[in-house]
């Protein structure tokens, strides 16, 4: 086969005259260039490792210290207080070395040790400084003297021009909260969700746990915290993600959308050419660590960058008991049931956007049919994990299937060329956005590769989107990549007047290589079964994208309220109106202030929020409702800060539960805590690289955000994306099979709740009756 021949460097034939050896010049050239690229990467990594290893100092500072020590020696003073002489005495050198030379060598050794000691001291100081979090709990706009001094010291010890991973060694470890504090916060969080008898029972279980088993489990957890860099992350990845046996599609993967109002080009291949090139530019910057370390907005506080290591060339591999994450230079493209290997490097250089467009167009124009069983092969990654693990082991462990599967799993990322058109289309843009979201989340259930770290979808009309696997990283990491790609695509690379990528094409480029498969009938049957499972899951998904443009965070901030707390209170109000009850609410918060930190849970339904909702719905006077809202908002912000600083509830209880399982002991308290359903799961993804977009002059160049599926079968998943000062996008999911949930009705309740809250907080609002009137009028408008 021609494809197989391209994969080897030489061919040989045995004849009566001997062996006829035929060397392939092109293959050998590619091997040579591949080796050159590999060594360049190693050299860059070695250089970056040295720079990162000595940060916040710099390699050049070593020379400064050496020169300073030598200079003081020549002035007949001894800065080492006799240590240089001691080193010289024990220096294992030959007799041929002069005394003066021995003194210089000893001075250089002393200088190096002093330099390393200074680096260690600076890093230790920075680590201690980054462990200070009281600044986060201070009133906005009122910074204490302690915090001002702290900020100045952080700036001094942070160094200059850090690389992406420069701060990793200086980040503090995630602290382990006390069992007493965690149990207290837990009981406080469930109080609005239980009646008196239920709360009394839960209090008794918690008290028993705290006074007996809890201390034993805590001891093991503290031991792990001393040994490991993060006591949560590895267990979270293993038990929450990799040991999950249900489909990744909808249940775990999430998506991100294209620009809401703009499609830079209607040409599918051109859009793919620019953005694929942008992805590889980002990967190059990532490999060279040229990406600036992420920080808390408006501060000098760095965030952990460990998750960035697995963005590219990563795939989640299924196992019968647990999966794994494997990190593996090309991309794989899916189109009309066929898989193609797309090489993006030629003769050691990255292909231009125009050349990638040319190669993508070749795939689009290819009329070859799929191999037997190939068309819906991707359904294996969309169904249950155990059947996929068994099929992978049996049918993809050797031969042509293994080689083709390796191409997919080792690819930088996965690309789908979709024949559908998506975006805000036709006379019903809201319905088209809903279809767009569902397409990105699950597609046709077989035209995505859900195991890849991320897959990019290019639609027929030039729209695009991204689908990401969740185990290797959280949404902000993927969002950072997506923001860079969208901005680079439109504002740096751009398109010509006809909508094609700019530049010239080398028509001698080898064609994309079609992958071959030999799918057995038994494997085809498993593909069909996985597709049935995935299709049922996709059909049951109810999705609604609400683009709220009546006001945004600008107006909310003028009311002196946190935009996140405002949205969370609106969600509590909307859920209560929708279900006439409160529920356990999950809001994702990050713990990347700590080394290898990922997420923590903010339990947004509190006694304060439920008291406010009941007061508003009960017709209390305006001032009472405002006071209760302020109290609920401040409580939410306090919980969010606690979660960010390692004092959350759920990750600590989760790890205590894991320890109990290792020890083989049962805890009724932990068992009940871990079995509670999250009927309202929420998440906010903020815009991180605001400087890449001009939201004032070009507000149309804004992404619609992204979303995920519901966590509970009878609950809602809500992702919200606060854009500029005048827009909030909501992505709402639930299941058709639950008679109590409806994504569109919940979206309408969210819209009403947002209007009612802003009217309540507006200075002109006086009478409580007006809230009810505005609610009634808004219903009519809907």
From TrEMBL:
It is an enzyme of class 2 (transferase). The chain crosses the membrane at residues 50-74, 103-126. InterPro entries: Carn_acyl_trans (IPR000542), CAT-like_dom_sf (IPR023213), Cho/carn_acyl_trans (IPR039551), Cho/carn_acyl_trans_2 (IPR042231), CPT_N (IPR032476). It catalyses: (R)-carnitine + hexadecanoyl-CoA = O-hexadecanoyl-(R)-carnitine + CoA. Residues 1-47 form the Carnitine O-palmitoyltransferase N-terminal domain. GO terms for molecular function: carnitine O-palmitoyltransferase activity. It is found in: Mitochondrion outer membrane. Pathway: Lipid metabolism; fatty acid beta-oxidation. Its EC number is 2.3.1.21. It is a multi-pass membrane protein. Residues 174-751 form the Choline/carnitine acyltransferase domain. One of its GO terms (biological process) is carnitine metabolic process. Pfam families: Carn_acyltransf, CPT_N. Keywords: Acyltransferase, Fatty acid metabolism, Lipid metabolism, Membrane, Mitochondrion, Transferase, Transmembrane, Transmembrane helix, Transport. GO terms for cellular component: mitochondrial outer membrane. The active site is at residue 470. Belongs to the carnitine/choline acetyltransferase family. This is carnitine O-palmitoyltransferase. The gene is LOC118287970.
